[in-house]
Amino acid sequence: MATANSFSYDVLVIGAGGAGLRAAIEAAGKGVSVGLICKSLLGKAHTVMAEGGMAAAMANVDDRDNWKVHFADTMRGGQYVNNWRMAELHAKEAPDRVRELEAWGAVFDRTPDGKILQRNFGGHRYPRLAHVGDRTGLELIRTLQDHTVYLGVKVHMEFTVIDLIVDNGRIAGALAYDRERGRFHVFSAKAVILATGGVGRAFRITSNSWEGTGDGHALAYRAGAQLIDMEFVQFHPTGMVWPPSVKGLLVTEGVRGEGGVLRNSEGRRFMFDDIPDNYKPQTASDPEEGWRYTQGDKSARRPPELLTRDHVARCINREVKAGRGTPHGGVYLDIAWIKEKLPNAAEHIKRKLPSMYHQFKELADLDITKEPMEIGPTTHYIMGGIRVNADSQESTIPGLFAAGECAAGINGANRLGGNSLSDLIVFGKRAGEYAAEFAKTHAAAAISDAAVNDGMKVALAPFDRSGAAENPYKVQSDLQDTMQDLVGIVRIEQEMQEALTRLAALNERASRAGVEGHREYHAGWHTCLDLRNLLAVSEAIARSAIERKESRGGHFRDDYPDKDPAFATFNVGTERASDGSMKVTRIPIPEMPAELKQVIEEQKQ
Amino acid sequence: MAQATFRIWRTAPDGSGKFVDYKTEVSEGMVVLDAVHSVQANQAPDLACRWNCKAGKCGSCSAEINGNPKLMCMTRLNTLNLDEPVTVEPMRAFPSIKDLVTDVSVNFRIKPGIKKFAPRKPDAADGTWRMAQRDIDRVQEFRKCIECFLCQDVCHVVRDHKKHEDDGFIGPRFLVYAAALEMHPLDTEDRLKDLKDTHQIGYCNITKCCTAVCPEHIHITDNAIIPLKERVVSRFYDPFTRLLRVLKT
After folding, report:
1. Which of A131, A256, A292, A302 is flagged as catalytic?
2. In angstroms, rounded to a whole number, what is the distance separating the alpha carbons of residues A139 and A144?
3. Domains of chain B (ranges, CATH numbers)
4. For a Cys-Cys bond, which of A35, A145, A265, A525 suits A9, CB 3.0-4.6 Å?
5. ∠ at Cα A493 (A203, A485), nearest 5°?
6. Is B74 an interface residue toward A (CB < 8 Å)?
7. A84-103 and A136-148 are packed helices; what angle lies between their axes, rounded to 10 degrees?
8. Is residue A486 pLDDT above 90, yes or no?
């Protein structure tokens, strides 16, 4: 059997995006030894792709904003199945976390009086997103990265975790391989933080980078932790649809925040046709009022293009299905029209949305200051993930923590744009703090040789199956088609049952996927190992979606198109049963304290 | 559907390498990275390349395409002559790991050698600062850097003379990093002596090759390196200020 190197840390952080880096900084600050594993090079994680901004009620632009409004917005956006304690902590702590970034060197865009500028975004009542043009994620990850490199955190770049190692129900460490040589490494740790991001690569059309293969979700699941809310997948309304090679690539919501409008092929602003009742009081009654809102008029209400992402995505889907789509199967997103309103509109657009301008210019030969973009929904984010304690971010396995997209709770059934980056820093910090505390009060658990050997055996199996083996790329591609076609933006019982049947077949094919050659930087081998994770999260998404027989947030069922109050009382949980099958449970949502209920009532007007 | 030939650098376990031709289908809108992925999925599953976002935002897929340092994900096939094979090879300034993947770890070792950000005391009682947008425009330009290291790859001081390994020359990426810190309105640290003595800014003879390949269009030479050189010169080499310093002590 292949030998393994070993490392030992007080706290091991798996994932080096915004949440992982923030957790590492916090843990290192508490004086414990910290190891950080990243699947890519440092600073390349999916966080770099975040565009619009991070939501924090700092009230720099509109002094009516405060944590209560942010809390109520988050709960309303999540359709009230959020973990209310997480939503509360997030709304209260986000401003301090953003200011802290400035102390670490982040350079946000400014207001005329020199404060951090904040912009409008879907579902946020007031301009709330601290941002840097449309490259806020890059600013976040670089700031955290540049702060971390001076702290003595040991970074293991291009390492991938194969399995977590658990000892008597407690976390003990992890088994990983490095891409460069394909060697195995055993990490012993008193506490482990998962910060591995999302699962977008389970779908054909996605805005996610290759790393979004649900590693943390699947690692935790296989180790025995509970996942919740896996049916809630966010389909971002605006992804590129043309040319084919960039299908799914994100077009920031900031385009709509700056005044961009959605039109169908008949030129109609269809978003005005379908405004949900609970958003009517906050939504503009005509295009003129919507425009004034985007230009900072405090008396105006927001245009319907800035309704929540789940709703906008479904409206776009409906227009396309009704035959009112664009030549390439999307709808039009038009920012060029603002030249009717603003002098120097082209310069204004290039300054506010520089990445979008270049993205379309270079990848689609289209000048967004002159022509409308063609866009359609793209798999963007999963609200579901590892079930955690709201305050500590500890999972159902003692010593195992989770933060960021791979953890669940704050977003409920739908995430508001901008709440992700602030989630990373608020709960990344908390995970780091509590993991360090755990490490200080617990001895290391034992790493069993058997667990390590089993993990290595599973990992090397693809090399034993050369010859007539399945092509792992083909299995992954078929999996993406299955999820895209059968568990996508509009769901129905029969199709999801069909998806489960196909997933079982894909599981069987994945167990026959093989590769030839050496272990050094072998992309085919890595794909074989990613498949296990993708298949586990896909099954959790399908089973949870079958269990929730209603439509809520990102989860829309054609056979149950309405919201059902009976389903507002619980989250759907998935965990591994003792026989290895996936068990689906209903986890009651605890009663919200009276003071938080009152906040929500006050904000309903 | 049309076909094109991609002449891709492949390495053997002993470290030797050669170009191998792969024919693959091409369609409208494709970029070089799509072609490499297609080769990977259908012909060479063990082909090694780095990539993440496929949107020009992460700076992972740097390579030399027909000899030009570029991001594979942002190089559209319709900008290349497909009647001839398209060569795709790794960044040559860095040691090879496998195929298109190189060992760029030197860059991660350089950064902690530059003194970190040290802000002045907060301007307001709530611990926040005030900065005017016009005072940060330049720093924001530098902070667009996606750390693709194409500027390091093309810099002859690094590529041909290996001054980053032998002499501590930090290269254009980290001169931009240092400039972003030096020109940050809140920063109080002084890095000029380091730039002159340790980071070897003097080696740069402003050929602007780095600026030419920057996918983020950062004016590396004009806006970052030359102003730093000017600051170093006026501090350490200007005869008048030298005289003043001597008189003072």
Report:
1. A256
2. 9
3. 2-102 (3.10.20.30), 105-240 (1.10.1060.10)
4. A35
5. 25
6. yes
7. 70
8. yes
